[in-house]
C-alpha cells in the first residue's frame, strides 16, 4: 500500500490529533519547541466530510499541557499571502479562550502557535527554516513575556539544507516528507521509538479505505484552491498589463499620435484598443 503524504492537513490531523495516540504529538512538539512535554490533552474535533471537501478551512490541532500551556499546530501548504495576520488572529483567539470576565489576568497561560508550511514566506526570506518569534524589546532584545511564542517551519527551506539525523526536528521533518526514500525512512524510524510508532500508524491509515477516500477529497479541495489562486493571480497580472498599456496609449494620444499608430506599440488592434479605452473612461 502506498504511503500517503503526512503533510496533507486532513491526514496530519488524523495522525497527530488523536488523544489515544498523544505520545506522537508530544514527540513532534518536543522536537519543535525543544521542551520536555510528558503529558497533554488534545481537543478532539470530529472531521466532517463536507468540511473536508468543501471550501478550505483550518484543520488544526489544539492541545493543552499538564501545566495549562496551550499549543496550536497547523499545516498550511497553500500560500494565501496572509500567514502573519492570520497567525496572530488565531493565536489571540486561543490565548483568551476560556478567559471569563472577572478572571485574573495572571491566569492567562502561555500560548504557542506552530505553522508547518509548504511554501516560503516573503516576510521570512532571510530567516532559518525554523523561525521562532516572541515579544521582546527592540533595542536590548530582552523578552517581555513568554506568554506568546510563534513558530514557522518552512518545508522548502528545510529541503535545501543538509539534514542531521542527530537533531530530533530534522528526523521528524524527514518523516513528514512525502517522497522520502525507503532507506532513509528506515534509518530515521530506527533511531526513535515514537517516530517508529508514527510510521506504523501512518501505514495503517494509508491502508484504510475510508481514510484514503477522505484524503483524496481533501487533496482535491487543496488542488482546486491552488487553481483558484493561480487563476486569480494570472488575472491580476493581465489586468495590470492592460492598465499599463492604456496609460502608454493615452500618453501617446496626448502627443497627437493617431490611434492606429499607437496600436503598433501594443499587442492589440485598433478596435480592441478603442474598447479598452472606452471601458477605462467609463470606469467599468
Structural account:
With 284 residues, this protein is an alpha/beta fold. It folds into two domains: 9-207, no CATH class; 242-282. The chain has eleven helices and six strands. It has helices spanning 9-16, 22-33, 49-53, 83-96, 155-158, 168-175, 182-190, 193-207, 209-254, 259-263, 270-282; strands at residues 40-42, 61-65, 70-76, 111-117, 130-136, 143-154. A six-stranded mixed β-sheet has the order 1-2-3-4-6-5, sandwiched between helices. Helix 4 links the parallel strand 3 and strand 4 (111-117). Helix 1 (9-16) packs across helix 8 and helix 6 (168-175) packs across helix 7 (182-190). The longest helix has 46 residues, at 209-254. 21% of the residues are buried. The mean pLDDT is 87. InterPro entries: RpnA. It comes from Neobacillus novalis. This is Rpn family recombination-promoting nuclease/putative transposase. It holds the Pfam family PDDEXK_2.
Helix and strand topology:
Layout: H1 9-16, H2 22-33, E1 40-42, H3 49-53, E2 61-65, E3 70-76, H4 83-96, E4 111-117, E5 130-136, E6 143-154, H5 155-158, H6 168-175, H7 182-190, H8 193-207, H9 209-254, H10 259-263, H11 270-282
Parallel strand pairs: 3-4, 4-6
Antiparallel strand pairs: 1-2, 2-3, 5-6
Organism: Neobacillus novalis
InterPro entries: RpnA
Pfam families: PDDEXK_2
Mean pLDDT: 87
Report how far the terminal alpha carbons are from each other: 55 Å
Structural class, from secondary structure content? alpha/beta
Main sheet: which strands, in order across?
1-2-3-4-6-5
Helical percentage: 40-55%
Number of domains: 2
Amino acid at each position: 500500500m502506498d504511503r500517503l503524504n503526512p503533510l496533507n492537513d486532513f491526514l496530519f490531523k488524523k495522525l497527530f490529533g488523536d488523544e489515544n495516540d498523544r505520545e506522537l504529538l508530544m514527540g513532534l512538539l518536543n522536537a519543535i519547541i525543544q521542551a520536555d512535554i510528558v503529558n497533554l490533552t488534545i481537543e478532539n474535533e470530529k472531521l466532517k466530510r463536507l468540511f473536508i471537501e468543501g471550501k478550505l478551512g483550518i484543520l488544526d490541532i489544539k492541545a493543552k499541557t499538564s501545566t495549562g500551556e496551550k499549543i496550536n499546530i497547523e499545516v498550511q501548504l497553500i500560500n494565501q499571502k496572509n500567514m502573519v495576520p492570520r497567525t496572530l488572529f488565531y493565536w489571540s483567539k486561543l490565548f483568551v479562550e476560556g478567559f471569563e470576565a472577572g478572571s485574573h489576568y495572571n491566569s492567562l497561560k502561555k500560548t504557542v502557535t506552530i505553522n508547518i508550511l509548504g511554501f516560503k514566506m516573503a516576510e521570512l526570506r532571510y530567516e532559518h527554516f525554523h523561525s521562532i518569534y516572541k515579544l521582546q524589546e527592540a533595542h536590548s532584545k530582552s523578552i517581555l513575556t513568554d506568554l506568546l511564542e510563534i513558530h514557522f517551519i518552512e518545508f522548502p527551506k528545510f529541503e535545501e539544507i543538509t539534514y542531521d539525523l542527530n537533531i530530533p526536528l530534522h528526523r521528524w521533518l524527514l518523516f513528514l516528507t512525502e517522497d522520502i526514500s525507503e532507506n532513509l525512512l528506515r534509518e530515521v524510524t530506527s533511531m526513535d521509538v515514537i517516530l517508529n510508532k508514527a510510521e506504523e500508524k501512518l501505514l495503517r491509515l494509508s491502508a484504510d479505505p475510508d481514510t484514503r477516500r477522505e484524503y483524496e477529497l481533501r487533496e482535491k479541495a487543496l488542488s482546486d484552491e491552488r487553481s483558484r489562486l493561480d487563476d486569480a493571480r494570472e488575472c491580476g497580472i493581465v489586468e495590470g498589463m492592460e492598465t499599463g498599456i492604456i496609460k502608454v496609449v493615452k500618453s501617446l494620444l496626448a502627443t497627437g499620435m493617431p490611434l492606429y499608430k499607437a496600436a503598433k506599440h501594443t499587442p492589440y488592434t485598433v478596435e480592441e484598443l478603442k474598447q479598452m479605452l472606452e471601458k477605462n473612461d467609463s470606469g467599468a
